[in-house]
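Students often ask why inverse folding is considered easier than folding. One informal answer: many sequences map to the same fold, so there is more than one right answer. In these notes we will look at a single instance of the problem. The structure comes first.
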């Protein structure tokens, strides 16, 4: 069974940077398009960005300029680099990936940004 595993979350200070990872398990799994979402307490899950296997990216307007999505197809891993973190970036960050025409979600990694 294919799984996606997020990592890299934690407690950070406002203004710092963070890089989240989303790795496919097993590493040989065929994952197509991938994306990041986040869900803050009491709010619905929101889309952040997506990336295709050819590297084509798309961002929600709210994160353009501070968030960078990337992927290493050889490692079957996707990344999310976040700069200048703000307290309002605190959320559980989820990744999803397309496997055999079905979206697979990770379990999430929590990011807490202190002011």
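Output (designed amino acids):
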């Amino acid at each position: 069974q294919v799984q996606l595993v997020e990592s890299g979350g934690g407690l950070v200070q406002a203004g710092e940077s963070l890089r989240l990872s989303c790795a496919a398990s097993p590493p040989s799994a065929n994952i197509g398009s991938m994306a990041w979402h986040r869900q803050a307490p009491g709010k619905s899950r929101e889309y952040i960005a997506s990336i295709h296997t050819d590297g084509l990216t798309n961002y929600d307007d709210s994160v353009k300029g501070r968030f960078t999505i990337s992927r290493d197809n050889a490692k079957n891993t996707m990344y999310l680099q976040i700069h200048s973190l703000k307290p309002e970036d605190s959320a559980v960050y989820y990744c999803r990936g397309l496997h055999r025409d079905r979206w697979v979600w990770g379990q999430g990694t929590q990011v807490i940004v202190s002011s």
